[in-house]
Amino acid sequence: MSVAVQTGFKQQEGHLRRVPEHDGKEMAPQLSVVVRGKRVACLPRAHLLLGAVPIAQKDGLEIRLPDERHVEALQAVVGYLADGTMDGVDAHNATEVLECARLLGLGNVRDACEEALAERVAAENCVRLRQLASQCGLPRLKRVCDSFLTDSFAGVLAERAGLDLPRVQVRLDVSSQTLELGTDLLEKFVPRVLVALDTIRRSTRKRLEEAVVQLVLQPDLRVTEWCREPSDKLRQHAPLSPERNSAEFYAKLRGGCSPARQLILTPTKTPGKTTESCGMRLLATAKLTDASSACLVEEGASLIVVSISVCTLLHNGQLPTSPTTGLPTFSQTNGCFISHMSLARSGFGIVATESEILAVGGFNRSGCLDSTESYSSITNSWKSRERMNVARGRLCTAVVEDRVYAIGGSDGKRELSTVEVQDLKHSRQWQKLKAGMPTPRSCHAAAVLDGVVYVVGGEHYSVPLKTSESFNPSTRSWRTLSPTTTARSDLALATCSGKVYAIGGNAPGLKCLSSVEAYDPARNLWSPVASMQFPRRNAAVVTVGDKIMVIGGYSGTEVLRSVEIYDPATNEWRECPPLCGARSHSSAVLYNKQVYVFGGYSGSLFLNTAECFDLRTEQWTPFA
Predict the structure, then answer these.
(1) Which band of pLDDT confidence, cut at 50, 70 and 90, is reported for residue 427?
(2) Within 10 A of 504 (CB to CB), how many other CB atoms are there?
(3) How far apart are CA 445 and CA 350, in angstroms?
């Protein structure tokens, strides 16, 4: 018997083969294991397979394996035949073990493997085992995984396997009347949202992929989606009073719609039907905030995370307006409903290019992160990108000529001097830069001026630093610069009008700073400038034209909502309208001529939410 074991649960080769005779004599049954054309010299206790596989007891057995992983799987099978335990099986090799058992016809090994896996279900492997159970038809393992997901889905979401699942983001716009239904709004309407998503899937005849779907919850408790063109059908089902049904009003609504889908949906299923009746099965839910939930959905043999956020689009049938200008707020008029990051991040790096925003690393309750994700305004969605080689929190990032640099930070144990670079135009794989920073550091800051990356401050062994360095991407070399006048960690760094500005931060002794100093590259000299109105550290910063905006942060006693703008021409700071919610350790970026602030820490929660500052009306709009 010759068996070729390959991944994918498909047997490509399997036929009887007599062991050749030698000198006219029939040889005793033999066992041989071949990997990539080479015979394995020794497989401990492998002779037990001759007794366990009936067809091999007469003719012997030859097993051809494609790689070493299958050798380990075969050893796990032999181990069970020897002592009745499956200690060698786990989520990483279970596929190969089950395939070996199937191809050899060892049903008892398959049952024992399923039993062992069911006893080892945990947050880090539950997703993988659930997919395995579905693919291989393992009912007990499937039941155990479903029960674990129901109880611990929030924890599973924070694991790497949970983060790598495909996601569909749903923005559920509701009127103020609907919000009065109670705080369990998400729990009530999750099944109806899934029915609406299934209607989209069937109407487009495509599988659900990463996308943003904007749904409207109507006063009669149906879920509908806005379409691009006004129609009698849309007006009939729109949650608006008759006097508001005007072409101008619908034009405003269409201007604020997500571009991901432009379908008008009128689900024919009654609201009381369960999600079992549609093409998707709800496995688990987790409430992330008062206004957002995540659902794990099974669609065919695939698992998908559906993130649902409740937003108030209509206030008593009308668009909300700015309290200062009386005009519709920015988020409803420019068509940019920016969606949440898939993961809460604090102390992370962020860069913007013409086509995307890239969030890199950071930390949250699960520790330092190696994950990255990018936002596209075309689909209004975040997509998981290539992971860094090293988990990095409290790092800084910079982009020069389509190359993103992830610089230093902490891996949770020590400060790092290493630098990774990603080429956005080519492979996008992170590569370690040969030339690391001269000084290991975290809680530092970086900014780009004239194609040169400046890295300033931070801390090493919890001691704030004065050191500043620059990196020249063209020569891939570092240069040590003059030190700052004050040691600073958790500072903000910005470039404006040909200078580099080090803003706030922590001084030795955890003193929170309001002071600011400017670096002149031509003179290699730091000089004090006007101090901020409020001391702050871990603030976000962004340069807007010829001014610098410093956002949020921590005062030493509380997380801040306050925002200040610095004008180098007058050397003056002025207050700006505050954030909708306090946040420190966040990151800010100028994108599509608007200021966006992402993530951070509220004082009690790690955040994946965003706020947008309209430069025209000087108003903040949360995307909650």
Answers:
(1) confident
(2) 28
(3) 12
- Within 8 A by CB and 6+ apart from 107, the residues are 101
Report the 10 Å Cβ neighbour count for 187.
12
Q: Which residues contact 517 (CB under 8 A, 6 or more apart)?
A: 484, 485, 486, 501, 502, 526, 527, 528, 529
pLDDT value, residue 481: 97
- Please give the radius of gyration of the chain, using alpha carbons only, rounded to the nearest integer: 29
Sequential DSSP letters for 209-221:
-SEEEEEEE-TTS
C-alpha 565/C-alpha 551 separation (Å) is 9
For the chain, the structural domain boundaries read: 2-120, 165-314, 345-436
624 and 607 Cβ atoms separated by less than 8 Å: no
Helix axes 139-157, 126-136, angle to 10 degrees: 150
Q: Residue 403: is its pLDDT beyond 50? A: yes
The torsion angles phi and psi of 472, rounded to 5 degrees, stand at -100, 105
CB-count exposure of residue 154 (10 Å: 0-12, 13-18, 19+): middle
pLDDT digits (tens, 9 = 90+) for 43-65: 667 667 666 665 554 455 667 77
Two tokens, residue 72: 């380990």
The residue-averaged pLDDT of 470-474 equals: 96
What is the pLDDT, as a whole number, of residue 135? 84
Per-residue buried b or exposed e for 348-385, using 16+ beta carbons within 10 Å of the residue's own CB:
bbbbbeeebbbbbbbbbebebbbbbbbbeeebbbbebb
Contacts for 424 with CB less than 8 Å, ≥ 6 apart = 353, 358, 399, 402, 403, 404
* Amino acid letter, 318: Q
Average pLDDT over residues 10-14: 34
188-214: average pLDDT? 67
CB 575 within 8 A of CB 533: yes
Predicted TM-score (pTM) above 0.70: no
Position with higher pLDDT, 418 vs 116: 418
> How far does CA 285 lie from the centroid of its chain?
18
Q: Contact, 341 vs 356, CB < 8 A?
A: no
Please write the tens of the pLDDT for every residue from 64-100: 777 777 777 787 887 777 777 787 788 888 888 888 7
Say which CATH topology domain 2-120 has.
Answer: Potassium Channel Kv1.1; Chain A (3.30.710)
Residue 494's DSSP bridge partners are 501
Max intra-chain CA distance, the chain: 103
- Neighbour order of strands in the sheet with 619-623: 587-591, 594-601, 606-614, 619-623
